[in-house]
User: What shape does this take?
Amino acid sequence: MRARLLAVRTETQDPMRAAEFWAGLLRRDIVENASGVLLPGTDTQLGLRFVPGRAGRLGANRMHLHLTSSDLDDQQRTVATALKLGGRHLDVGQRPEEGHIVLADPAGYEFCVIEPDNAYLAGCGFLGEVACDGTRDVGLFWSEVLGWPLVWDQDGETAVQSPLGGTKVAWGGPPVAPREEPNRQRFELVPVTGDLPATVDGLIALGAGRPPAGRDGAVVLSDPDGNEFCVRD
Assistant: This one.
């Protein structure tokens, strides 16, 4: 393990509004500091951080969240809660026979409420998955960075998960849409050892690139597909 995955960092025009939506939906506390607005995770559930920036835009969002359901009533309760908090239904071309429900949060980022009895996300917790655009090389890279084993590796699609279980992180494989701008969402890491320079050097040795420096004390790197992520003390 080179670093610990702390959160998905998401740009939004109103970070507190986005944080309040997700805090209400995930039933989490809000922590506000100079680095943005954080919904802390746990050993098995990924954190979310919201920072000032661009709103989400369908087609430009390269990752989205999957929430799980214990039964159909539970799925409908999650959808009803999301709509009450300011979410909306979203048509991304899903077919009527598909069991998942696609929504958008107030910041313009899509997410899915997955149907019950989904064996792939069984036991992953409420925040079951972060689904990302990306090649197999990216899945292998993040497995090495986080020390998380591959739990899916088929037809170019990959997924990793902490040895403790919980939220999976997955990459959909080719074709991957070309990047036309910096990502609105990115992973936020913290060093396991507390040594930021050594951690950055280790990540570069594994294949990370180094775009221009980040803000708020964070170092910005990129994965093998060019997706930015940040590492901070």
Q: What stands out?
A: The chain has one domain: 3-231.
